[in-house]
């Protein structure tokens, strides 16, 4: 069969299409040109094959998934800086159990607490926000025990117990061993309240009704050779006085029988008001 020059050109074009797999323009019966995808072999993808998940479609504009797309919400924040209360005190007590916090507990979510929470979160691969969210709280719960009452008040701050009936008349240093507090009362009215601690097992603070018999602003113990500022003696060598050790260590320590006061400013004001002969009541 004879092949003209035009026929040879068409054959060459079809051969090129078969090899390269490019697009050719076919002409339909109406003279309209339509693209034709020419492919060869089993490696060629079918025209209706869909791209795999996550793959880009050539020429397709990217689309914002919009607000309906599924996103994991951040964990709920339970406590953050500035919050106050008993729950915050528990958070601080648990952080103290793990040595992330050394102050307090104070019951106030302060800068020291934020820093402690950030450290705890970072150590466990959590977002270091410094806020106590639900995820951080569950992790903290799993690693600590329920704080005992005095763990919550390791450095004081506990509510004062109701005054003993013997404190309701006159000028009285009303000392509660139950709440570890001292009320300074005048004619049944509470003037001030402060945190106190007592003697250890073998040097207990005596209970009962006494009176202030001696005051010494710069007293030093002749037995233990320790400083006892603002001392107000009420029973032999036992006195109400300021304790720097109590201020530094909280209830981790104890006295030799005296009533230690933690807040120097408060006992300084108390020392200025108390007179020799004023009543002292120590009770449970």
From TrEMBL:
Keywords: Cell shape, Cell wall biogenesis/degradation, Peptidoglycan synthesis, Signal, Transferase. The active site is at 241 (proton donor/acceptor), 258 (nucleophile). Coiled coil: none annotated. SUPFAM superfamilies: L,D-transpeptidase catalytic domain-like, PGBD-like. Pathway: Cell wall biogenesis; peptidoglycan biosynthesis. Residues 38-62 have a biased composition (Low complexity). Residues 28-84 are annotated as: Disordered. It comes from the Bacteria. Gene3D superfamilies: L,D-transpeptidase catalytic domain-like, PGBD-like superfamily/PGBD. Residues 1-24 form the signal peptide. InterPro entries: LD-transpeptidase, LD_TPept_cat_dom, Peptidoglycan-bd-like, PGBD-like_sf, PGBDSf, Transpep_catalytic_dom. The keyword Cell wall biogenesis/degradation applies. Residues 171-283 form the L,D-TPase catalytic domain. PANTHER family: EXPORTED PROTEIN, L,D-TRANSPEPTIDASE. This is L,D-transpeptidase family protein. It comes from Streptomyces kaempferi.
């Amino acid at each position: 069969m004879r092949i003209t020059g035009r026929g040879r050109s068409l054959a060459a074009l079809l051969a090129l299409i078969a090899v390269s797999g490019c697009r050719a323009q076919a002409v339909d019966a109406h003279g309209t040109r339509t693209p034709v995808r020419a492919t060869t072999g089993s490696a060629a993808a079918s025209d209706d094959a869909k791209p795999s998940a996550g793959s880009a479609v050539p020429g397709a504009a990217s689309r914002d998934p919009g607000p309906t797309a599924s996103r994991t919400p951040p964990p709920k924040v339970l406590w953050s800086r500035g919050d106050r209360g008993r729950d915050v005190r528990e958070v601080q007590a648990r952080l103290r159990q793990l040595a992330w916090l050394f102050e307090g507990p104070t019951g106030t979510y302060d800068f020291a607490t934020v820093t402690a929470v950030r450290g705890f979160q970072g150590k466990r691969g959590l977002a270091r926000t410094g806020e106590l969210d639900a995820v951080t709280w569950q992790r903290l719960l799993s690693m600590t025990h329920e704080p005992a009452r005095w763990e919550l008040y390791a450095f004081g701050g506990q509510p004062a117990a109701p005054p003993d009936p013997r404190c309701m008349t006159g000028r009285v240093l009303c000392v509660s061993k139950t709440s570890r507090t001292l009320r300074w009362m005048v004619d049944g009215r509470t003037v001030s309240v402060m945190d106190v601690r007592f003697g250890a097992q073998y040097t207990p603070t005596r209970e009962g009704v006494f009176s202030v018999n001696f005051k010494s602003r710069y007293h030093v113990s002749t037995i233990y050779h320790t400083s006892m500022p603002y001392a107000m003696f009420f029973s032999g060598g036992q006195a109400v006085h300021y304790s720097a050790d109590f201020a530094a260590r909280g209830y981790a320590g104890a006295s030799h029988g005296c009533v230690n006061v933690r807040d120097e400013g408060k006992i300084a004001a108390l020392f200025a008001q108390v007179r020799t002969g004023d009543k002292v009541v120590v009770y449970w």
